[in-house]
Amino acid sequence: MQHLLGYDGKKGEILKASLSLFAAKGYDAVSVRDIAKAAGVSEAALYKHFKGKEDMALYIFTVIISDYTERIKQIECGENSAVSKLCRIVEITYDLYREYPAEIRFALLSQYSFWDLVDEEIKPHFVIRKILEEGMEKGEIPRQEVYFWIIVFTGIMLQPLNQYPYFHDALPEFDTLKTKITSLISKLFS
C-alpha cells in the first residue's frame, strides 16, 4: 500500500509502523516501545530520528494536513461555483480516505491533539472559509456566520468517515456514502 509519507529506510519503517499503530489504537494507547517493536528497531534507533512519540505523531499529522490543504487549494482556484467547490472537497476527502485509510483515520482521530501545534497556513479550514465567503458574497450560499458554516460542512463531511470503521456494515457502500454526502452538501448550501 502506498503512503503519503515518502521516507525509505529506518525512518520510513518507523513512520509506517507508528502510523499504523496510531490509526488502529489511537495515539494515547501506543507506546514508543510498541512503535519500535512494530518497526523492527530498537528504541534507541527510534530516538535517533524523533524526539519521542509526540514528535513523531506531530510530524505525521503535519504531512497529512499539508498534503490535504494543498489538494483543496487547487479547488479554491477553480472557476466553479462555491457549492461545486465544496462538493469537490467532499469527493477528494473521501477519495483520500479510500486511498490512504490509515493516514486519514489518524488525522481524523488526532486533529484535536495536534491542531494547535501546526502552522496556520497548512490548516484546511482557511481554504474552506475563503470558498464559503466567496459563495456568500456572490449569493450562491445563504448568509451565515462563516465559522458556523465551516462547522456544519466539516461535520457533515467528516463525521461519517470517523464512524465508518465502526458502522461500515450499517452504512451504505463507500461510493454510495460519498455520493449521499456530496448531495447533502449541495442541497444544504444551494
N-to-C series of helices and strands: HHHHHHHHH
Helices, by number, come to: 9
Rg of Cα set:
18 Å
Mean residue pLDDT: 91
Q: What best-fitting shape do the alpha-carbon axes yield?
A: elongated
In words, what does this structure look like?
The chain is mostly helical and 190 residues long. Helix content is 74%, strand content 0%. The protein is built from nine helices and no strands. Helix 4 (53-76) runs antiparallel to helix 5 (82-99) and helix 4 packs across helix 6. It is elongated, with a radius of gyration of 18 Å.
In short:
This protein has 190 residues and is mostly helical. The protein is 74% helix and 0% strand.
Which structural traits does this protein have?
mainly alpha
Question: What is the strand and helix layout of this fold?
Answer:
Elements: H1 9-25, H2 32-39, H3 43-49, H4 53-76, H5 82-99, H6 101-114, H7 124-137, H8 146-167, H9 174-189
Helix pairs in contact: 1-2, 1-6, 4-5, 4-6, 4-7, 5-6, 5-7, 5-8, 5-9, 7-8, 8-9
